[in-house]
Amino acid sequence: MRKLYTNLLGCILVFFFILGNAFAQGSITVKGKVTDAINGEALIGVSIKLKGSTQGTSTDVSGAFTINMPSNGILIFTYIGFVSTEIPINNQTTLNVKLKTSSAALDEVIVVGYGTQRKSDITGSVARIKGADIASQPVLAATQAIQGKIAGVQIISSGDPNSLPTVRIRGTGTMKAGANPLYVVDGILTEDIRNINNADIVSMDILKDASATAIYGMRAANGVLLITTKKGKTGKMVIAYDGQAGIKEAAHLVNMAGPSQYAGYLNEASIYYGTGDELITAAQLQSGANTDWYDAILKKGIQQNHNISLSGGTDDVTYFISAGYLSDKGIIETNDFNRFTLRSNNEYNAAKWLKLSSLISFSRLNNRTVDLNAFNIAYRAAPYIASKIGEKYGNTSLSNNVGNPLLNLEKADNSVLGNRLQGSFAADVKPVSWLTLRSSFGVDLDFLKSTNYGYQFNNVGANSIFLTEGGNQLRDKSDLTVSQNNATKWVWDNTATFAKVLDKHSFNILAGITSEQYKFNGLTGKRVNVPENKDQWYLGIGSTKGATNDNTGDKWTRNSYISRLNYAYDNKYLLTATFRADGTSRFPTQNRWGYFPSVGLGWNIAEEDFMKGQKTFTTLKIRGSWGRVGNDQIATNVYFPIAAINIPYFYNNVEYSGIAFNQLPDKNVKWETTEEYDLGLDFGFFNNRLNGELDYYSKTTRDALIDIRIPAILGDIDGLYTTNASNFTNKGAEFALNWTDKVNDDWSYNIGGNVAYNKNAVTRLNGGQALVDGNTGGNQGNVTKSDNGQPIGSFFIYEADGIFQNVDEIAASAQKDALPGDLRYKDLSGPDGTPDGIINESDRTFMGSYQPKYTFGINGNVTFKEFDLGISTYGTTGGKIYNGKKASRNDQRDNLETDVVNNRWTPDRPSKSEPRATLSQLPASSYFLEKGDFFRINNLTLGFTIPKATLSKFSIERLRIYVAAQNLATITGYSGFTPEITSDRATTAGIESSIYPTTRTFTFGVNIGL
Amino acid sequence: MKTNKYIITCITAGLIVLSGCSKDFLEVSPQGQLTEDQVLKDPNAANQLVGGVYSTLYFGGFDNTTVGFLFECLNDMASDDTDKGSSPSDFSAGGEIDNFTVTANNFVLNNIWQGHYSAINRANKAIDVLTQSTFDEGVKNTLIGEVRFLRGIYYFNMVRCFGGVPKVIRTPDPSEGNSDEFQTRSTKEEIYQVILDDLQFAADNLPEKGSTEVGRATKGAAQSYLAKVYMYQKNWAKVLENTTAVINSGRYNLVNDYSLIFRENAVGNDGGNNNVESIFEVQTGINLGENAVSLLYSNGQGPRSKGGWNDLGFGINTPSSDLANAYEANDKRRAASIIFINPTVIHKDGGNPLNVGTVLWDGFRIPTQDSVENERYNYKAFHSSLKESPQVSNNKDSKPKNIRLMRYADVLLMYAEAQANLGNSGEAEAKLKLVRNRAGLVTVAGTVANIWNERRVELAMEQDRFFDLVRQGRAGTVLRAKGKAFVDGKNELFPIPQAQRDLSAGRLTQNPGY
């Protein structure tokens, strides 16, 4: 390992500093400028290639370029959205080129995995987001910035500073194997992209259907997101700085009852419906405080993001070097996150037939995390208890058996320090014009150290930290837990690509082998009685009595064979066929290999002769595809019978270490496979000013791994058995439409909208055994049930049917013991399937699920002279949320929401929706279920670009300032923190409990180009 | 340059072919974990598996349970010994047991079911491995005897809780989980036969107390449990035979001071863990993982604060006033079994409460009633954090309290009951006298009624009373007289957990009345 590091470091140094190489050739220097043929504006970043070679350059910010080349060579100018143009040089040394807008604006180049393809040639469902659209938003993870922009890609974001948004592409198709998509960063497969600086991203390509994803076979079932980072372009050095700073706050909070409302409710409940005692006395209120616990634990956070990059290159070498710093203090006390990133992407044209590249990124993060349970206990804590006065805290555990959330935050210091090095080194060899051999070696080293310190504090005696002594919140010994988690991964791709055009037949054939290895090593130690001084938070300090040390590991390997054929006849008829064979150590020998084929067909109708005369359609393409993909994201050891060791017992008062087999493994665990059909239509009208896509898909996941409950007689300690025992289906349609127009030289705008519909269902569950989950505590039981025909994680609860207004209603109901003001539940069934006059478990019914039926977004940009205005929005409808905070009333003296208190049923003010005051936890019913529909203005940005004339005096190429608002406004009926609930567990995803509120951020930013 | 081109092209092409890895590349063993194959290669594995079976005695907390906190709650609360305790809203599942409103969905029952079958399967696995092992026959049979002893106790618990249950005496393959063999209930009699076979094998093969490590099952323990099982079957001759064997073994005697039976440390050679009266007890201890304990056994039952002091527990399973009143005057066992919380008395002039609390044997002072949730707590479950071994961390839930499962006093009372039933009331009275004298009471006649009363106060809150009442055939009469909603023909047994019935596709039949 040590040797690997040494080598790695060596390589990095070499690539950083040894720039330039001597492959000088006899040639002329051509200089020139590339402009838009229509408006004469300089085109930045136009790719210029010397025909028949790999040599090339691109235009700088003023559209200028310089290239050394043979005097009789031909230059090819390509630029997205413009017609590719070839110009023979014939000894000219200055060349001004005007490019015409392409009739096929759709013809961008898409990264498709182990290669690229023109969008017009693609038979699958793919989408692309430009890096600029990602970097313009003040967010950590790139995926958060694409929310609402691509039909069928659901992004669930969180306000937590270091969070990775939950991404669901075309629904949730798995339960146990991980429903997150695959991320591929410059060829490296990963599950986490929080190390990537958004300013370094050129593009994100999203592969949605099996024809597109099948090249990633075993990891493709949830869709694939490919991130490509920036490279340098031939030409003079370009320096860019982008900075933004802003302030963030919770976008929406819940109003909790104040002291008198709280006391009024509890006393009413206790005096009229309980023991008759006054629970909260007037004296307690009088001497008490008036605490809004959310005010107490929340703050306004500062967020900053600074990026600087240098890029440029010669014909032989291009470089892109960047540094980024992002800091986000979150919105909850003590929370503090920052990330520093470095990137060096270099390419070396060592010879006409040999290109070497090194893409390396380093990221370092520092995060003081918070226990999200603080949001939950702030919900519960009694409002008449002070949060903190001077150095002493209010003693909430005396009032209602809940810790003081502010104390919890301030007396714990949990920090994470992460270092991640991700990079790839590749050689492209082109021995002949139709063949490229590529070998790419990627590494991903992720080192995470966490230090969790709990301060000692007393609750009684002279040193009591509380205003009032007693209760059960204390830590009589300080404790320190330090862990070091090191994950190392390498992936080695070796591919051969044959590309040949024979008359009207165009072939592109890819074949290759990849292998991958992942290793994890985690060390954890715990000590008690460690001094408060931060400098002493090491395992070497502290009491050895009670010290614990632990060391765990993980390892898996993959080996895959990949192949792809792209064939096009006359640009009209397209065929894509892929086949991938994957072997992974995660499955037992007999089920180790999975085979993943796909076929896609396309017909570019607009290219047909009979369409030549018409002016309406610029683009018209029909696509159809079928494919089968897999999912291997299961725990490494799932099929091994593992011994539980060091099971203690005492003989002769001496500890003896026994062993036991507590968990029954399925020794025959096999791949989940997802089969998908997609039918799509791409169209563009009026010179593609109006263009769009329409897709229908049907996905079926077979042999999905689920935890099934097994009879206790089998002896499995948790009664759960992981096996392939379910199918899931996702069926839906997607529609996207964009309108781009340039009114005149001053005015241009575009507006786009997309909408997706998805229907998720569980089918063919193991013998019909439904999966229940989501226990919200107390007598609520499990609130979700995933059963055949229902979406995953469907709520299965009582149906609340209003409030009993009088005794007559009660007498006529199935709840004879109820009192006026109680919730009435529908008596839907009984042991024999008919209503039985009793409300019990058999009356629970399906009430919807968290999964939205529709997701949609509308995005637009307007440019007027130097001003630009952008807006992006996102919304979902059809999903439900279970308000878990409200439902889990742990203690009868827990606080309540203002609305619950103020609107409660009383004989004088009979409510039709809020029940009477009660000290008990209510059963799980639709009373706690709310619509999760929302529509949000995700981002609104107003920018101003300083005119070039002004800037030229300061030798600045570009200067833009802007103000932006992230999450400006959300329209939702949901009463909790946020309708967006991030959860990795599909069966509990719709329950809001301890969740970081969505944040709203206002920022000011500047973009400078030198 | 040309040469380079060919060389590099060939190398790259070679890499593409070579990077198809060897088969071994995909064979990855679990890291830092032992697989079954690796474990069973170790000749010591059988012994370690037996250790794993003993460890099932720790199953407790609010989780899967064998003889721990929840099982204690079930047995004590259902009887007239204890109330649910704690605050009114806490632990409603316990309240259902206390009031006989228990349903098949009560989590306590499911956790007891799961805990026992989990333990039984560990036992079965150990027996499978032991049977195939190459140990010396004597050693092998001793180890098998220990495991079968534990399995016998577990089935005895199950049959008393639920009646006939599925008979699992070998390790089933997961594919067999749904077979009728394992998904239908055996009869009560079949289960009793399993228990008797197991315990008899243990009695025949285990060494006497003192001839083996402290904590392991012994011949005496097996015989005592045999006696108890036979007592439930009213086979008085067998009760007599087995209790006589225990008594005559000379290995056991009564602790002089009743209050010292439940202490960790002996006082003047009297009492403490594994005392002379102990026949079988759960061996807890202090270890780094703090997992050599029956979780919450002590803390779950410890005195609960209403505020103002660092309390000793959750206050669940509190001695009932009926139990407190069941002791005769001067019975030393009353104060040794129950922690009484003193009332809060206000000064006559309306000033501060009198500073009178309850001082426990270790000197800890519990405040008066206004700061304490309940009026009485179980002294037998108390573990002193001042005078007894503390856990290394602050975790009060894992206090190392040995649970006394079988005491010599129980054997004496079983002997007495057998003799009384066989018409030898003199013999019965002699043994009854030993138990009563120790409690500071004079002797009474050796009648069955007197013995039953004695069992209650002697073995209060020791997981005996409810099943004892059912065995005596008077559970309904006794409990209804105390205001409990016991229904004859129903509440003698608890309902089969609904979760398990659902998993059996309805083949596990429900007990009558549920």
Give a written overview of the molecule.
- Chain A is mainly beta and 1010 residues long.
- Chain A contains 13 helices and 51 strands.
- The model of chain A is unreliable at 1-25 (pLDDT under 50).
- Chain B contains 19 helices and nine strands.
- In chain B, the strands form four sheets. In chain B, strands 2-4 form a two-stranded antiparallel ribbon. In chain B, strands 3-9 form a two-stranded antiparallel sheet. A two-stranded antiparallel ribbon of chain B has the order 5-8.
- In chain B, α6 (107-132) packs antiparallel against α7 (137-162).
- The radius of gyration of chain B is 27 Å and the shape is globular.
The N- to C-terminal Cα distance of chain A equals 42 Å
Ranges of chain A with pLDDT <50 over ≥5 residues? 1-25
**Amount of helix of chain A:** under 10%
Protein chain pair with the most extensive contact, residues per chain? A-B, 99 and 90 residues
- Would you identify the CATH H-level superfamily of the domain at 109-237 in chain A? TonB-dependent receptor, plug domain
For the report, how would you describe the main beta sheet of chain B?
A: 2 strands, antiparallel
Question: Secondary-structure element sequence of chain B?
Answer: HEHHHEHHHHHHHEEHHEEEEEHHHHHH
Largest sheet of chain A: 22 strands, antiparallel, barrel
Rg from Cα of chain A:
31 Å
Shape of chain A: globular
Residue share in β-strands of chain A: over 45%
Number of E-type strands of chain A: 51
Low-confidence stretches of chain B: none
CATH topology of the domain at 109-237 in chain A: Ferric Hydroxamate Uptake Protein, Chain A, domain 1
How many helical elements of chain B? 19
